[in-house]
Design goal:
This protein is an all-alpha fold. The protein has a domain of 191 residues: Orthogonal Bundle (Hypothetical protein af1432). It contains 15 helices and no strands. The structure holds fe (ii) ion (FE2). Fe (ii) ion binds next to helix 11.
Length: 280
Amino acid sequence: MKYSIEELIQEADKLPPLPQAAQKALAILRRPESNAAGLARVLGTDQVLTTRVLRWANSAYYGMGNRIVTVQQAVVVLGLNTVQELITTYMVSDYLNRPLPGYDLQRGELWQHSLGTAIGAKLISKQHHLNFDEEAYFAGLLCDIGKLVFEKLLRTTDLRQAPDDPSSFLAMEFATFGIDHAILGAEMARRWQLPDNLVAVIAFHHQPEAAPQHQMLVSAIHVADAAMMMLGVGIGIDGLHYPFDQDALKRLGMNEEDLLRVVSQIADEMEHAKELISNA
Ligand SMILES: [Fe+2]
């Protein structure tokens, strides 16, 4: 059965309202005038988030003891970008941390895959001086949001109708729903008024060669996504058929060795990040 994009977006609207909160955090990020005082004002309306930011700042991970008592102090200690990353990651974790049986993913697998893709994309940006560290992180975190909508529909879909050749799970999505999770996710992001570069990355994260703009950013997400597949996190039923675009590596100035290094660094950093979020 084919669905119109409107019908699929209506399904997206039935998802829990967490994207609104994440959207708020991303909106803060977009504002060039963002600063510690501005962030403190926004967080001041949300006691739960304020408390978490203070806990993060005081956590053993950052080795600060219990000396941070205001959000402004926390931003000084952690840095504005880190605080925004933590807030958004925390909010998105609830959203992505659910089982997706339609994709053969257990609870936590999509979440860990998304977190690792975010961390990997940011590492690539830093190591290759690409200057889009934060955008890469958020794009990695959100690139698979379209899967959340398809997942619900997949539970009641007879996949025997799907093409015989499962060489790409994206092709199966396309055959079943008329669009794939990249296109649907991009449309969701556009309606959430996320920045244009995030929308573009979500739309093209599986085919960076076709991206009309932001191609380096898209390539970084694609490579980080592939790195997570190599780590075996969030593979589900399509992992072994992941179509990897080797040109994305070249575009970023990376070779196979660089990729393997990123894979092992992601594994290390994920442990820290998961510990931090789960202790919050
Ligand atoms: Fe994807």
